[in-house]
């Protein structure tokens, strides 16, 4: 029986492997073409960018991260200014953003192939290449582009650790997890969601896995917690203010409900005001309810090395608790991380000025674009009517293509930063 199952799965892997590779290559070229088009005149900046660039310059000149007014840099984590310093110029930052986009596409496409049925996995790289959230954040000198890559690497390492139980993958997941909140504070929210979902599967983990999990969560969160302690208590007074009330929480929930819906449906920007806040918030709740991973009727390939037999995966894996790991656990973990980020960021808008409004919401939620695509494809109904499923998928792809094309035109017209805003190291001499 095992031999028959191995033959069927490996045959499916061979059948879809080369189409998958071809689509990944085409999607990567499309993504780089879009990125090259919107950044041809240079990267753009906002108020956040000014702080990032100034901190990078002061780090290069004095060895300290400082704000434009000379106070210690503290509003954002320190990793991105350090990377900006290493890049040396805006041209280098552009290369960094492009590499992060391509790396994110490759990581999530690979992971989608492990978690999704093979035919659905074929669509993953194309949807990612047409992702407006990724293109949007890559245009600006923001920390999100690197954050996307880090979360993709973290998800891959976490899946490999859950599958094999190897300390090397545990170390990789922990190292990347440590960097997540040092790149963006939202990394703490993602880690919180991951922790809750994996701890809820406590009974399914062996004693060794339980200890690894606890140590992983503690080490991963340490850097982010220490930076927040420094930012809030050492570097200056708190930038948070008293609560703005439940109406702000409802409004933020509605913003995220609209943004996530817009990733799936061709909705115009004005669509946000067509429904009251309570209905868009209800849409958000409904989306997460629909995306909760359930048992799949069509199984993924689960191939660790291209088109290999499932027998290799089973015999080389160290099981979670005597049985082969269930891919649903990682899908549920991605679901939990996504929910935690949306809920906690929406709650944060009650106490802070940031992350409010659909534009900030799309920026903050950009790291969830790939997980949401994976969850949607995993939850895609196995309809008896193939033409209906293909029609819905075509509408999704067409809507994504139209929107990313429209946004690309708008982003190209955004005034770029001048070279003087971030001169190279030679100007410091």
Automatic annotation (TrEMBL):
Superkingdom assignment: Bacteria
Coiled-coil ranges (or none): none
Spans traversing the lipid bilayer: 20-44, 91-110, 145-162, 182-201, 213-232, 273-292, 334-352, 364-382, 388-409
Keyword annotations of the record: Membrane, Transmembrane, Transmembrane helix
The keyword RNA-binding is annotated on this UniProt entry: no
Protein's name in the database: Glycosyltransferase RgtA/B/C/D-like domain-containing protein
Upper classification of the organism: Bacteria, Pseudomonadati, Bacteroidota, Cytophagia, Cytophagales
């Amino acid at each position: 029986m095992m031999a028959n199952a191995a033959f069927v799965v490996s045959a499916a892997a061979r059948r879809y492997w080369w189409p998958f590779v071809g689509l990944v290559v085409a999607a990567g070229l499309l993504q780089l073409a879009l990125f090259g088009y919107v950044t041809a005149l240079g990267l753009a900046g906002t108020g956040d960018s000014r702080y990032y660039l100034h901190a990078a310059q002061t780090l290069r000149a004095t060895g300290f991260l400082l704000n434009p007014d000379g106070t210690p840099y503290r509003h954002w984590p320190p990793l991105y200014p350090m990377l900006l310093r290493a890049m040396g110029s805006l041209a280098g930052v552009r290369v960094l953003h492009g590499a992060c986009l391509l790396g994110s596409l490759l990581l999530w496409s690979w992971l989608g192939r492990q978690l999704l049925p093979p035919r659905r996995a074929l669509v993953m790289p194309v949807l990612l290449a047409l992702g407006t959230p990724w293109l949007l954040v890559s245009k600006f000198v923001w920390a999100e582009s690197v954050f996307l890559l880090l979360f993709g690497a973290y998800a891959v390492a976490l899946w490999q650790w859950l599958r094999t139980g190897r300390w090397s993958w545990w170390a990789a997941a922990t190292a990347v997890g440590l960097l997540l909140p040092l790149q963006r504070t939202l990394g703490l929210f993602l880690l919180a969601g991951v922790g809750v979902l994996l701890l809820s599967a406590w009974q399914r983990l062996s004693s060794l896995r339980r200890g690894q999990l606890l140590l992983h969560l503690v080490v991963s969160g340490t850097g982010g917690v220490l930076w927040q302690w420094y930012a809030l208590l050492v570097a200056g007074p708190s930038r948070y203010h008293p609560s703005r009330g439940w109406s702000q929480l409802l409004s933020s929930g509605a913003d995220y409900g609209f943004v996530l819906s817009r990733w799936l449906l061709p909705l115009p920007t004005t669509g946000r005001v067509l429904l009251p806040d309570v209905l868009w918030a209800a849409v958000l709740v409904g989306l997460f309810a629909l995306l909760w991973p359930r048992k799949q009727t069509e199984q993924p390939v689960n191939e660790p090395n291209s088109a290999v037999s499932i027998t290799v995966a089973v015999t080389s894996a160290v099981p979670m608790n005597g049985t082969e790991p269930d891919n649903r656990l990682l899908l549920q973990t991605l679901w939990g991380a996504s929910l935690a980020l949306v809920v906690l960021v929406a709650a944060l808008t009650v106490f802070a000025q940031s992350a409010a409004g659909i534009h900030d919401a799309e920026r903050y939620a950009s790291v969830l674009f790939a997980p949401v695509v994976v969850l949607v494809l995993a939850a895609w109904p196995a309809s008896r009517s193939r033409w209906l499923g293909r029609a819905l998928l075509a509408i999704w792809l067409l809507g994504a293509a139209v929107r990313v094309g429209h946004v690309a035109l708008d982003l190209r017209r955004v005034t770029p930063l001048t070279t003087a805003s971030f001169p190279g190291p030679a100007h410091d001499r």
